[in-house]
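Section 3.1 - Work completed
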Amino acid sequence: MGLIELWRSGRAGLADKRIDQILAIAGDGRLRDGGTTSREFRAFLGQVPSDRLREYAGQCLAETFPQSGFVLQDIVNEIGVRLGFEVEPGRYRGKPGEPSGDGLWRSEDGRWLVVEVKTTDAYRIRLEKFAERRRALVERQQVEPEAVSGLIVVGRQDTGGLEAQIRGSRFAWDMRLISVDALSHLVDVRESLEDARTARQIRDVLFPREFTRLDAIVALVFWTKEDLRFGASDYDDASRLENSVAPRRGRTQKRAPAFVPVQFHEACVARVERAKKLRLRRQSRSVFVDSESETVLVCRIAKTRQRAAGGRRGWGFFFAPTHRQLLQEAKCGWVALGCGSEALTFLFPGAEFLSWVEELPQRTYRGRKYSQFRIVERGKRYQLRRGGDLEPIDITSYRLPASD
């Protein structure tokens, strides 16, 4: 049984193994350029949660082992993928004329990062290598030299010597330096957010820029704060959207309920994994992916709201344009809605769900557009209510059974 199959089946106690022990299970245990072990090991890294990647990187740095540098290189490239870059892994062993270094990261706006991974800054590095690799990349990709920058990822926090070397070189404006730990923290921020604009700003931090004007840094901090505050839970979001609309004549404007954080995404996702035999990892706050099957899951959660009249329960949700786009582009898409807790979770095929919400009017809150809908309990059945003149949809059959 291969490494991926072992991970998916939960066998062999992989969760308790060190990364060098896991590498020994992959193929013949030797990382070679273009080899099956490398492909299997990289596929495994693409499946594990991001906090596990950070743990594995720490193991590479705390106690070196054979091929630990190659392992760290693959981990850093996987972090690049999770930040939203298109990543071309570099060679484990350099080859003259190859432009990749340890990795090539391409952003959606056509800029490139030539990435170098160093476990320590104890030795001076030959920065001229960057110029050679940039020149080769410019020729191969037909891009302008200004579109190619260098990023050195180091394992240690004490990087004073390397920083001084870069500042004193002719590459000071073309190259940046970041620790593995800080790079991992960027992934944490990325996965806690929803807004695509903030995700782009996070990637932009890694490119060299002149910071006489600080607007870009302030914008990143501001939108990160807004995204985190606005998206603390779907219940809070849906309530704010509802209360941002002016009340009808003769009605009193509702007050927003007291903020109560609701966080059970992972528990809902675990139920979906069992039901559909997937291995999902977080991409953003409510988006999870299975890279092997090219499956995208949008998981939204809401706090229970109980109406006094009849005691009927209801749950308010919103759906963003970014969710719609992800589902439309996915090879296989699903939407999970968690109501109050993971015990009441509904799972819908993405295309079918999109056909239901396509007619929903969009509302705007603080410059962001969302569609709003509700799930309402009626006896032992459940309806998805879209408001207005749209007919409610009976969704009882989409509920995940308790025995999953």
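Second construct:
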Amino acid sequence: MLPKKMSFNKQDAQDWEKDLIQLAEAAEEIGKYETARMFFACAAIMHDFAEKLKKPDVLLS
């Protein structure tokens, strides 16, 4: 279970983006193209989120 509030910064978002891209590429390699598209879409969202982070930390609740 996640804590009620957690810190999330630009570096965290960039790390998630890289991990999601790796998952997408792995899914493509085994022919799971729908899954790959989902992971690529999530990576794109995370990329946009990382770009929009102005503060070093954002509290998620």
